[in-house]
Fold this sequence. Notes:
Layout (H helix, E strand, L loop, with lengths): L1 H23 L4 E6 L10 E6 L5 E5 L2 E5 L4 E4 L14 E8 L2 E6 L3 E5 L4 E6 L6 E5 L5 E5 L2 E6 L4 E7 L11 E3 L5 E3 L6 E7 L11 E7 L5 E7 L2 E6 L3 E6 L4 E7 L1 H7 L2 E7 L2 E6 L4 E5 L5 E5 L5 E7 L4 E6 L4 E6 L5 E4 H4 L7 E6 L5 E7 L2 E4 L12 E4 L2 E4 L10 E8 L6 E7 L3 E4 L4 E4 L8 E10 L2 E7 L3 E7 L6 E8 L1 E3 L2 E3 L2 E7 L3 E6 L4 E5 L4 E5 L1 H5 L6 E8 L2 E6 L2 E8 L2 E7 L10 E6 L5 E5 L2 E5 L6 E4 L10 E8 L6 E5 L2 E5 L1 H4 L8 E8 L2 E3 L11 E5 L5 E7 L8 E7 L13 E4 L5 E10 L8 E10 L6 H24 L2 H32 L12 H16 L8 H8 L3 H12 L3 H19 L4 H7 L5 H12 ...
Parallel strand pairs: 62-67
Antiparallel strand pairs: 1-28, 2-3, 3-4, 4-5, 6-7, 7-8, 8-9, 10-11, 11-12, 12-13, 14-15, 15-16, 16-17, 18-19, 19-20, 20-21, 22-23, 23-24, 24-25, 26-27, 27-28, 29-59, 30-31, 31-32, 31-35, 32-33, 33-34, 35-36, 36-37, 36-39, 37-38, 39-40, 40-41, 41-42, 43-44, 45-46, 46-47, 47-48, 49-50, 50-51, ...
Helix pairs in contact: 7-8, 9-10, 11-14
Amino acid sequence: MGRGFHYIKICFAAILMACVQLVFASGSYSSFTINHLQGLSNSAVLSILQDNQGLMWFGTYDGLNCYDGRTIEVFRTDFSKGRTLDNNIISRIQIAADDKLWVQSFSGVNLFSTDSLSVIDNYIFPDEETIVFSNRKGNSWIVGKRNIYYYNVRHRCFVKAGKMNFHLDNLQQSAFVDEKGELHIVPVNDTKMYHFSLNSFSTDSLQTNLQVTSSLLHSKPIKKTFIQSEVICFIDSADDLYLYDASKKSKVYIRNVGELLRKYGSFMNVFPFYDDVLITLHTGGILRLMASQQYQEDLMRVDLRIFSAYTDSQQGILWMGTDGAGVVKFAKKDALVTNLMLSRMSPSISGQVRGIMTDHYGTLWIGTKGDGLIRIPNYQKELDINSLLIYSPKGKWALSEYVRGPNFYPVFMLKKKNHGDDFWVGMSDSLLYYYSYQSDKLVPVQGSIKYSTEIHGLYEENDSVLWLATLGTGLIKVVLDVSHDVPQIKRFRRFRCFAEQKEIVEYSSLWVQGDSVLWMGSRGQGLVRFDIRKNEYQVYSLRAMLGKAVNDVLCLCEYDKSHVFVGTTAGLVSVQVNGRNIVPSYIGREQGLVNEMVHGIVKDDAGILWMGTNKGMIKYDPVSGGSYTYYYSKGIEIGEFSDDSYYRSPYNGDIFLGGVDGLLYMNDRQSSIPEYYPKLVLRKLIIDREEVNLNRYYSDDKKMIVLPEGQNTFSLQFVALDYLNADIEYAYILEGYDEKWSLFSKENEAVFKDVPPGKYVFRVRYKKDVLDTVYEEYSVVIKIVPFWYHTIWAYLGISLFIILCLSGYVYRLYRKGFFSRLARAWAISGRGLEEIRLEENLSMKEKALGSWSAYFPYCIESEQITFIQRILEIIEANLDKEELGPTFLAEKMHISPRQFYRKFKDLSGIAPSDFIKKYRMDKAAQLLSDTDMSIQEVIESVGISSRPYFYKEFADKYGTTPKNYRARHKGAASAN
């Protein structure tokens, strides 16, 4: 049994090592697959092209696919249309013009319009195998086994240019068209490259002249060529591989590939990618010839058989069409962060990351929630599983051999001692631990603090005095005897802090201001300031100061000596500290911070805050107030972050954030990676929830979208053609219709309803970083054409007709003396009418406002009375809500808070908040005297959460307690 178990352990370790090697193999490239889950029509992809607009096109065994980084649109044969794709098997795609593509199928060549998204023409070459070639301008050639053709733009057809007098092994890999429109062909078993040029692609075919020249390409016969754009990779008769750049006329020797051909079989394609050369194999897989290692081979992705490849030089992406796996996108790793995932280190680790620390040896220490302390030597180098160790109070183990038992060893906090290398370890225990480098183990301090508590913050006042911020026991001062090899606890003391008659015992975080003031984040009561010189404390309720539920504090981050950022379960709070006074300001969803639960905050040298949240990492700029969320993007593999796990190394400035299954770190170089900003394109127009052909609504110059008034409810979809970054945020405005720009979000659709006739400008911009101040922008004019009866001429005609009718009617009244009689009556009763109107308004005010009318002495006009009546209705309906306040009422009244405040005070003479307080107290008094509700029920029904606050305000207004008030009024009622 013992031998069998030992054998299983050896096999498990071997499998683990193999998995780790697989994870870190080919580490310089990242890949992403596009398949049916994203909408790809077929998983066998024969051809790939990026058009001049930046859209990606995939030719598959079942249709043509257009991909914009978010969605895929599929085009197939549809014989119900006048012209259509002649076959759904798309073998090649090339540029035909700025707005057209050549789509070659197994049946012929189709001219496809990217504007109308339809086939314009079909061309068939029935008697020979042909391949279409073109450049980015659309200068196009057809190379066949027997003939060469060019596309005559004037005649809109292919014209035979000459005979094919060469032997071409693979048509697709034997030619290319340069930027001048010249066709270049490299035949098999030849040393030359042949050049075909025309004087024009657009003149009459009778006036077109073809010139054929040649140039020496290589001294030995070339037996195999692989061409992409103007880069030719070829293998000569000696099996030497060369790379020739036709645009630069430079040739580079790579290596001899004879041994590779014998070992792996024939090559399907060869092309450069960054500094490497990649070879796709007929048998499947990719050979990577690494320039950094004298082009030694590295076999990668043996699971793939590659049909086609395309290199996007703008973003540095290699697109590969596969046999059965869809499109695989390769890019060089320029990740924002480096991930260290616990599950890759050991499948036995199940606890999330909590405490984090580095030392000057380059070691990374990770505290986990249940699995103890992990040690990673030289964490910035390639991970060596055999060097990883795990520590607990029971001892240490190699991580590869670790199996979690029944014991639970959470490590919440790691803090280096003031002197020496050792560091304190905050655990959940009545004992205090530290790590000793000399003995290489966790050492318990002699003695106990008698309370089993979680230590989340520690301040070492001096060698013998520690202050512990704990979750469960509050603040503890520990005095040590350090005269022994192992420190001993001489004494300890708990400091009890109270808020609203409730003891605060749960602290999540600690910030030390100067050398004598501790700021502690509490779970539920806000911030606590403790002066260790005077043993005095002060509690600050952020909820009471801001009117937001931000008293549950998770983390603290010092910005400068008098400024701290507070992460809470409901958003971020910026706190300016001036002695005992603080000025907090809230930063949440309304300010653009999408994820409001902030678990950890780290500040970098540029003053940027990096925050781990419940859904992604946020980059926040306190200066501009902008934020940007990374959620499983830019190489980030952690989506949910955890408490306590935020740290910045004092040795190299690395920033660490930990999560539920690992941690990530980044340095200044990673956090400042330059971004590529592609252009924005308008993708779809949707009218009344039905997608329409956008091209049909463009003006002739394509600078305006024209819509009839009957189609004035519409939406526009747009996208930035970025194929590496999915976390792009957009903002838009329809100038002349919208008052301001929309907030930045990942939503890429703008919806407009009932837009009046007129001319507007639709503008959309995007950003990829919180520091972006100059945005990439797209704009287009949108014109809503009115119905004929809404035109200016119709309005003028109708107005003129009404004026004529009124003039005739007024003249008739004048002839009858109506106006003279009316003037005499008005002069007599004018003053009396005014008095009647005032009396009617006062009566209406008394009826509408009841007993509250006296509070609004300046409310006279009927519109004003209606305004106040609506406010009273809202207050009465929402009185039990704690958030009832001026901002709440302004939102319900659909006006700005500033306008609401000014208008209310003009009518009442008091601030809205003071009136709400009066209303709550009067309502409470009424409930106390008229109902049998308990005092607590009365407090809750008037929307007050603090019982002491209610008693204080009630006593200030009525001069007695609620209980005495009820007794007095109930007694009076009984007497009556």
